[in-house]
């Protein structure tokens, strides 16, 4: 989460200067007001985001993206397997056997092992890399993900509260 | 992933009928061509998305959104804990103690238990529900997530291939 708090532009010699000596005080205050008005016009609204601790140098978005990478790799493996199933049974069984004994939890470790397994699996690994890139960029419906997430959080909140109210008020469902 | 393949509109009595008896063959073919042209004008472009098996009645987007819900709940707990830390130490320690003995892997089970734990924790649970909803809808940077995912998949693919080439060609890094 990058939070862009932009401070009002302050000219080195403009803000913070006070009229030296016998300058008219009235004029100073007027100029100061004008400067403040100018600054508030230049400065964007203050960042009103919640502070999320615990992500060190990363961000919640980076953490979520990292987790999605593993998921996209899993999807790519499923896509390639289903493609192979219909026209190359031998390769299909070889990849299926590899998947059955290798964890898909870490996408990079999985692909690293797959590339080094056999010449045929190296070719399939290249295809998985291609498929996951194409899937992320063209097929995955990002807008749908956002829409579903909005709906899910509302539904889950309503359900939790309704269940609790039903429980404590002893109303039969 | 919802794939909207719309079949050409076929009037019950139009497509599939053949001229019975001695109708002019030439006229039949011309009418058939016209029908086909009409159908291709009505039907949208074919769905060119990859077939992703294994999600049953759901979709990869729904699966990803479900996983993100648990993550957003985790973020909301962190946010509330960090807010409490500065102004209500008692509630902070109570929530922290609860978090230490309850898994955050399943957001709904966590919240369900939290609501029923004690009156104070019930209040905090309500706040967590509110925070996670606000976070999903306002604070979380969805565009950033997409951008990061695009970059990550490219970077990971390049790294995997480069590492492999370096390894097999025995080039010193």
UniProtKB/TrEMBL annotation, chains A, B:
Superkingdom: Eukaryota
Keywords, ordered alphabetically: Carbon dioxide fixation, Chaperone, Photosynthesis
KW Chaperone (keyword) present: yes
Annotated GO biological process: carbon fixation; photosynthesis; response to cold; response to salt stress; response to water deprivation; ribulose bisphosphate carboxylase complex assembly
InterPro entries registered for this protein in UniProt: Chaperonin_RbcX_sf (IPR038052), Chaperonin_RcbX (IPR003435)
GO cellular component: chloroplast thylakoid
Gene Ontology molecular-function annotations: protein folding chaperone
Name of the featured protein: Chaperonin-like RbcX protein
